[in-house]
Amino acid sequence: MVIGEIPAKRGALEKVKGRTLFGVDQGQPSDLVLACVRVFEAPARIEEIDPTPALALPGVVKVFTYKDIPGSNRLGIIPVTKDQQFLAEDRVLHPGQAVALVVGIDQKSAEKGVRAVSVKTTPLPGVFDYKKALLPDAPLVHPEHPTGNLLSSRVIKKGDVEKALSESYVVVKNTYTTSPLEHCALETEGGRARIVDGRLEVKACSQNPHYDQADLTRFLGLEAEQVRVIQAETGGGFGGKLDISVQAYLGLACWLLKKPCRMVYSREESFHATGKRHPFEMVYTTGADKKGRLTAIKAEMLADTGAFASYGLAVAMRAAVHAAGPYFVPNSLVDLKMVYTNNPWYGAMRGFGVPQAAIAHEGQMDALAEKLGMDPWEIRRLNALRPGQETITGQKLLSGVGIIACLDALKPHYEAFKRELNSTPEYLEGVGLGAMYYGIGNTGVSNPSTAQIEWTVDNKVILHTGVADIGQGSDTVLCQMAAEKLGLEYSRMELVRGDTDHTTNAGATSASRQTYISGNAVLNAAEDLKALILDEASEMLEAAKQDLLLSGEKISVVGYPDKTLSVIEVVHSLEQKGKETRGEGDYDPTTQALDQETGQGEPYETYAYAVQAALCQVEQASGMIRIKKVAAAHDVGKAINPEAVKGQIAGGVLMGVGLALMEEYKPGKSENLQDYHIPTAKDAPEINSLIVEEPCDTGPYGAKGVGEPALIPTAPALAAGVGQALGRPMRHMPMSLERVMEALEQRDQEKGSDHDR
């Protein structure tokens, strides 16, 4: 039995010993070095780019502009919104956009060349406040876009919201806001390109090498067979390495110069050049009956995608679908608008808009509980989705609906936190809850995965997968699944992954999809391999296939214990016939596209569920917040590797601490980790990870994902806990020192007014 065991994480020992070569480590001493010329006064019209001063410098080899791009300069992760120019053409749309690429013999030469390139621009009117982007007089970011600054509008309609709200016993209406966030992966973007046998080979950090290959071929005007992309070991991503980055620059310079090149973003350049989490403003109106049952939800949501679409369409759709949270709501109206601005572009980040929505729907549950005099846990359990009920998109849930199991698992810890509350004149304390559900995979569209497993003539068992492991542990989990299905020891599994020459497309490492979708593809490949082996063994043993038993590396005939073969004998027999012992597998979740008018449909095949509780403390004199304890109950279907699940939960909680308390990307001001603060080990609370296993009928061994779900409930729980401590709801993230002090001052003013009366 391999499932449920905790084998050593693949690659962990090499990382601990410092032997792992990440994308930033790929360069060789003789490589040419690349650096971008970026313009920070934006928006602006480009009047002239003069590379002459740079080319006059010793060590500068070449300066490229958009005119040198042999293919399409329109890149973007979603086919219908390829609006990103990797080298700006006539206009700079956001501060920090690249306008030229300098090639030097070393880093110093390239950087000198960047400073020497002369760029003349004329300022243009811009829009930086996303709440003003749709005003009639707002400057247009993309004048050619058919709907102006409106990238996307998503609507979810079910029932009669206005009637339900008018008949509700209690109605609460509140506004919630979130800020842009930077990914801050430990490794910045980096990689190397070279020409091998006349083909372009790019090895870089990535969350999807096959997407990178498609973008590079389009960018360079090449055929797919001319480009090989290899995912280098990747030191974290969180969505930030889904969009292509250094790969395009490496491909351009290497292909045109026919010399090996390397490129690594500094931390500052990573801040300037990569996508952020979308900021949201959400106005929620929620109704309930006298018993606390939800009657209706109305959510008006506005979000900023910045200068380029990137994942804006996907974030808009997912946030709208999840706007009501893991609750049964008979009437709903969600209206989400995603707009362009001249801010740095906002892309994929862990949760795809659901962390923002969760802050609002969970704040509303707490507001209703307060008005009704109910415990926050009780109102959540009363309304939690159950098998047979429908989501706000009209999808009837069947198996694996684990939100009630999560609530029940969490309750003892929640009650213990309440008993521990100890507010004093120096410190205020509060307990908060946060719940969520999260659709596994892409929303309402085909998002398949593929895998292959081969048994070689030298008796190796090799899993081939295009899945990019970015630290989450998919290498380990997928090998566990394959070993389990084949009846082998985990140590027998070898792995080839993330190489477009040797693996097929497994889709992006995003949307918590790889354990579920690629896991199913791996199991199907294992079944196909078993079938090939047993078909051949049937001939060799002169026995019916259904009478054969494959156990580990031996095949026997039921009832005839002495009639056996080893698998390697079967493999050699197939080889002599010119056949490979290679199983193929694929999997594509069954979904139904959302109706354009109503948003009704079945966007995901299954959902993950979670509830977290937090014990929070606020120092009255300083406003400093300390998160003392977090209990996190997550329904993962089946924990293939329990320690990996716990690690994901702990990492997600700490990332949620950053979202809730300190992280806020400010364009033009947040340029490094001195200006942008992320949680450290000293900010980590005591975390109790509670694994809930509500089996999913369609999951591999019942499993679902936990990548995004680990983060989503944390900020709502912290907001509720801090709000309870302060006696005032906290609805704007992050809960900065200034916001906490403002809440304390307002509380004191209200106390003074009460005293005067």
So, the CATH homologous superfamily of the largest domain? Answer: Aldehyde oxidase/xanthine dehydrogenase, molybdopterin binding domain
Strand order of the largest sheet: 3-7-1-14-11-12-13
Give the averaged pLDDT, no decimals. Answer: 96
Low-confidence stretches: none
CATH topology description of the largest domain: Aldehyde Oxidoreductase, domain 4
How would you classify the helix and strand content by structural class? alpha+beta
Instruction: Kindly give the count of domains.
Output: 3
**What percent of the residues sit in helical stretches (DSSP H or I)?**
25-40%
For the termini, the CA-CA separation is 71 Å
Q: Tell me the β content.
A: 25-35%
* CATH architectural designation of the largest domain: 2-Layer Sandwich
Instruction: Count every helix, treating DSSP H or I runs of 4 or more residues as helices.
Output: 17
Number of E-type strands:
28
Shape: globular
Biggest sheet overview: 7 strands, mixed
Q: What is the CA-based Rg, rounded?
A: 27 Å
Biased composition (Polar residues): 589-599
GO molecular function: iron ion binding; oxidoreductase activity
Organism: Dethiosulfatarculus sandiegensis
Domain Aldehyde oxidase/xanthine dehydrogenase a/b hammerhead: 17-125
